[in-house]
Amino acid sequence: MSNSGISRKSFLFTLAAAACLGGVPPVLAQERDNRVTRIIVPFGTGGAPDIVARLLANVLGQRTAKTFIVENRGGANGNIGADIVAKAPPDGHTLLLHGPSLAINPSIYKKLPFDTERDLRPVVEVCAAEGMLFVVNAANPAKTLADFIAAAKRPAAKLAYASPGVGNAFHLAAENFLNVAGVQAVHVPYKGAGEAVTALMAGDVQFLIGSAPSVGPQLQAGRLRALAFAAKRRSAEFPNVPTFAESDLQGLEMTLWYGLFAPRGTPDAVIAALNADVRAALGDPGMRQVLAQQGLVPVGGEPIQLGELLHSDISRYGMLAKRAGIQPE
């Protein structure tokens, strides 16, 4: 949120930092007026996108003396929120905080109400996670992934797993695991990561694959147990959790990214100013500390880099969706 009491000195420092980080003249920060800026999160509360958006809105507000608010507009695996932004006025006051699902949806929906690469302009990659965590309820007797798989393959075993929707990165990661491990389980989609984690803690499902921000607090509280990490190396935050490869399951590495997008037609000067403001915010020690606590790394970079990431992931996740047997709806 904005800080109306921010000093003129602090405000000038923010503009100077933005200019240094983004190579953008401070005057570009004036391209946007002082109206409220909405950051649309196309998922429910409690998940990584929501956490990142609220942190970013708070730091941007403090550093720019402007008001940023977060709106959760979940549904259709992020398509509802993304469509709101795609059709919003291109003035820089309606932004989208999205992740891999934006790249996945073109492969799992026969028709989208917008064109992902045409109707959304990349602004900046905010942060990334090094991998995903395979977690079970702490009451589950399985202490290792091998234990879990062995139990899941018993004739009487009936498994269900949660995800924050159909066709998102966590859903694809879980289906990829089932294929590689030779295990069967029913997919139970929820409206957001918070609901999925709650279902796992309640015993309604037997496992999920989630991000550190969404499952980390419950792991630290002892309510969940992590059995594997979907990355090439172990997590710095959870160093005792082995990778899938260490558990003899290959090809299950997954990464997460969260980026900021604006409607098509947003002027270049506005995109540049937003990019500079976010990159300056990512240099804030407090923001970096909170991101690190969530297992996330600040990224930054130019808009074109986020666009290239989105383009490559559309192709990569398309292949994963086919391998998982997910048919476009």
UniProtKB/TrEMBL annotation:
Domain of life: Bacteria
Signal peptide as annotated in the record: 1-29
Family listed: Belongs to the UPF0065 (bug) family.
Keyword Phosphoprotein found: no
CDD domains, alphabetized: PBP2_Bug27
InterPro entries: BUG (IPR005064), Bug_dom1 (IPR042100), TAT_signal (IPR006311)
Name the UniProt record assigns to this protein: Tripartite-type tricarboxylate transporter receptor subunit TctC
Pfam families linked: TctC (PF03401)
Keywords: Receptor, Signal
Listed Gene3D superfamilies: Bordetella uptake gene, domain 1, Periplasmic binding protein-like II
PROSITE patterns, alphabetized: TAT (PS51318)
Organism: Pseudacidovorax intermedius
